[in-house]
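Structure in, sequence out. Go:
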């Protein structure tokens, strides 16, 4: 639990060292905390943009990119965005409902 505790405790530390504890910066911030920071920011941006789910939100991605190097680790952010984009590319359109595809019933 020690690693999880550090991730939670330090995920608000900015990558450039200018926020909250100022105890850590850059690679001194635990890896889990840097990952959690990206996910937390994305979640907040999606909610602010009106998205209740964590689907791909281009505005949220743009907002994340503005924080690269200051609040967020650029390497983690690049990986996170590539995962989002891969998931979006792999997603298939929703199947039509049975009601839309069923042939009309003749009476």
């Amino acid at each position: 639990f020690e690693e999880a505790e550090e991730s939670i405790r330090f995920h608000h530390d900015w990558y450039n060292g200018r926020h909250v504890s100022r105890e850590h910066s850059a690679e001194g911030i635990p890896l889990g905390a840097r990952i959690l920071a990206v996910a937390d920011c994305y979640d907040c941006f999606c909610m602010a943009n009106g998205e209740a789910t964590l689907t791909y939100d281009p505005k949220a991605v743009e907002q994340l990119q503005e924080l690269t190097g200051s609040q967020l680790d650029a390497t983690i952010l690049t990986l996170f965005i590539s995962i989002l984009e891969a998931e979006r590319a792999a997603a298939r359109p929703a199947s039509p409902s049975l009601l839309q595809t069923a042939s009309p019933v003749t009476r």
